[in-house]
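**User:**
If convenient, please work through this fold.
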Amino acid sequence: MTRVPVETHERFAFGWGFAEAILFFVIPDVFLTLMAIRIGLRRSLRLALSATAGAVAGGIVMYGWGAWHPDSALAAMELLPGVDATMVEAVGSDVAAEGNRALLLGPWRGQPYKLFAAASGDLGLSLVELVLLTIPGRLVRFVISVLVAAYVGWFFRRWLSERVLIGSWAVFWLVVYAGYWFA
C-alpha cells in the first residue's frame, strides 16, 4: 500500500469540513474517525484542525448566503437528507434567542452547522463572533470523535486486523446515518 502524504490528508479534511459546512450532508467525523484508526491519534488531531478550518471557511460562505438571500439558502438546506422545515425553523428560533452561541449545542443535537451559519447571516449577527464560536463548536466534536476512534482502534488492534476495524467503522457510520436520515 502506498503512503499518502499528510498534506494530502489535511487538504482533504479541510475540503470535507468546507463542503459539509455548505451543502454536503456527511459530517467530517466520518473521515476523521477513519484516519484515527488508520494513521493514529496525533496525525488525526491535525486533520481535526484542518476540518475545523474548512468549516470556518464554509461557515463564512453560508453566513454570506444567509445574509444575501436567506430564502434560497434555507430552501436549499431543506433538500438535504435529515433536514426539514421544522429543523430549519427550530435552528432559526434558537439563533434568534441565543445568538451565535446556539451553534455550540446544535451539532450535539443533530442540527447541521450550516443552518446556524445561514441563520446568523439572515439575522445580521456578528460574523466575527460566528467565526470565533465555530472554532470550539466544531473542533471539540471533531477531537472527541478522533480520540474515541483512535482509542477503539488501538484497543481492538491486538485482536482484529485493520480490515476488520475498517469494516466495523463502515458499519458504525452506516447505522448512524440510517438512523439519522430514515428514523
About this structure: Helices lie at 6-22, 29-39, 41-68, 70-78, 85-98, 113-122, 127-156, 162-182. The mean pLDDT is 92. The chain has one domain: 6-182.
